[in-house]
Structures are given as C-alpha cells and as structure tokens.
Amino acid sequence: QVQLVESGGGLVQAGGSLRLSCAASGRTFSMYAMGWFRQAPGKEREFVAVISPSGGTTSYANSVKGRFTISRDNAKNTVFLQMNSLNAEDTAIYYCAGRPGPSTGWNRPTDVASWGQGTQVTVSS
C-alpha cells in the first residue's frame, strides 16, 4: 500500500476557495484509485470525491458536485482537491484515501486501503 500525506488545509471565509494536495510514496500510485473523505465533529466520515487510476473518471458526492474538482498527476504521485464556493457545512477534517483498482464502489470508509493523516478545513461565516 501507499503512504499518503495531505496538505493545504486552513481557514477560509465563506465563498472562498482552497486546494488540498495529497502526496503519495511508493511505486504503485498509478494503479490506485484515489479519493477524499471528510469528517466533521459528531458526524460520520463521508465520501467526497474519487478519481480513477488513469484520471479519466471522477465521481462526487452530491453535496460538493459543481463546487469541488478532483485531479491527479501520476508523474508526481499527487492528487488534488480544488474546493470552490466553500460554506460552513464544508468544515471538516479532510482525509486522502486510496485503493488499488477501479474508482467504482467507493461507498464507505471501510472500502479504503490507505489513509492520510487528515488536514483541517475551517470555513467561517
């Protein structure tokens, strides 16, 4: 499995933008579907977005569709999450996640094989 390290979290005002990055170590990054989950205090960890190993297919939670964009650069072993039009409901710890194989079937955190340590995103109103 790959080792994942997130960065780019912070404090932003409502309506603003942030870009999260996830750096992966290992030789098999290009074989992994990569995604993002988030968890707010008192809530379950929830799916945000996923991208296929080649980057050709993406999927998003309805709550972020049209506002967030996931992308990857396999040459640099990095996946990104561009977050626009942020609101208070986006406040959470964001976790980078990976699993070998296709990007389909990402319904629960237990589907994930590798996790990053998380990065805090706080949106002020």
N to C succession of SSEs: EEEEEEEEEEE
Oligomeric state of the chains in view: single chain
Distance, first to last CA? 39 Å
Low-confidence stretches: none
Tell me, rounded to a whole number, the average pLDDT.
95
Radius of gyration: 13 Å
Major β-sheet profile: 7 strands, mixed
Structure characterization notes:
The chain has 125 residues and is an all-beta fold. It has no helices and eleven strands. It has strands at residues 3-7, 10-13, 18-25, 32-39, 46-51, 58-60, 68-73, 78-83, 92-100, 114-115, 119-124. Strands 2, 4, 5, 6, 9, 10 and 11 form a seven-stranded mixed beta sheet that branches. Strands 1-3-8-7 form a four-stranded antiparallel beta sheet, with no helix packed on it. The radius of gyration is 13 Å and the shape is globular. The chain starts with a strand and ends with a strand.
Key structural traits:
single chain, 125 residues, mainly beta, 7-stranded mixed beta sheet, 4-stranded antiparallel beta sheet, 0% helix, globular
Outline the secondary-structure elements.
Layout: E1 3-7, E2 10-13, E3 18-25, E4 32-39, E5 46-51, E6 58-60, E7 68-73, E8 78-83, E9 92-100, E10 114-115, E11 119-124
What is the gist of this entry?
The protein has strands spanning 3-7, 10-13, 18-25, 32-39, 46-51, 58-60, 68-73, 78-83, 92-100, 114-115, 119-124. The chain is mainly β. A hairpin with a 6-residue loop joins strand 4 and strand 5.
